[in-house]
Structure formats: C-alpha cells, structure tokens
Amino acid sequence: xxxxxxxxxxxxxxxxxxxxxxxxxxxxxxxxxxxxxxxxxxxxxxxxxxxxxxxxxxxxxxxxxxxxxxxxxxxxxxxxxxxxxxxxxxxxxxxxxxxxxxxxxxxxxxxxxxxxxxxxxxxxxxxxxxxxxxxxxxxxxxxxxxxxxxxxxxxxxx
Length: 158
Prior knowledge:
Layout: H1 2-19, H2 26-50, E1 54-55, H3 60-85, H4 91-115, E2 119-120, H5 126-154
C-alpha cells in the first residue's frame, strides 16, 4: 500500500511539474535534472554502497523503487526548488526553497528506508542523509545558476 502511495505521489509531482510555469529556460532545467541525477547516483552508488553504509535487497520491486527515487522523484524535487529559488520577484519563495527541498529529499530517503528499498547497516544515519540532501540541492542550485548565466551571456535565452 505504501509503495502505491509513493508511486501516486510521484505521478502527482510529475503532473504538477509539467503544469506549473517555470522561470528557468528549458536547457537550464535539463541541466539541473542531469546534475541532480548525477550527484545523487554518484553519492548513492559510490559512497553508500561501496562504503557499505547501506544494504540493497535483491528483489526487482525494490530496484524499481530505487530507480523511481533516483531518476524521477529526486530530480523533480530539486528542479522544482531550484526553479522556485530563481523567481526574482518573490524573495520569501527564494528563502524557503532550500529548507523545503532538503526536507523533501530527506523524506524521500526516509520513505525508501521505510519501504525497504535499502537498509542502513549501522542504523539510520540522519546526518548523512541531511548532508547528502543539502549537497545535492546546493550543487544543483549553483551549477544551474552558472549554466543559466552562460545561456544568457551567449544569447541563447533572454
């Protein structure tokens, strides 16, 4: 039942992402998506699995959940927060985007642990999840900002 809820939440997030007006140009959104996937994938596979901080079950259903989280849910959260933080007219939105994004990324990690997609070996390392979420968001925000500035400077977008 909880797996269905996570999949339903991901579908609703996808629909909201598509329907919402975006402030970033399409190439910057694609760049942000790829940055979020690359960093999250590298952190999970290299750091978490190789250092044996988590154990991954071999069931196919859990693999699908991890892929849903890695390639769809995490980039949706990050791109939505980065886009919200680049809204120039609303400083409160920019200020609130970071803690909301980090909390949503941590909730996604916690839901993966609760659903059994991976299991921490030495107990739940909350600080590690917080550091990972903050790093993914900060890297995506900084690199997407630099890429959007490059697009404007080169005249690709206004």
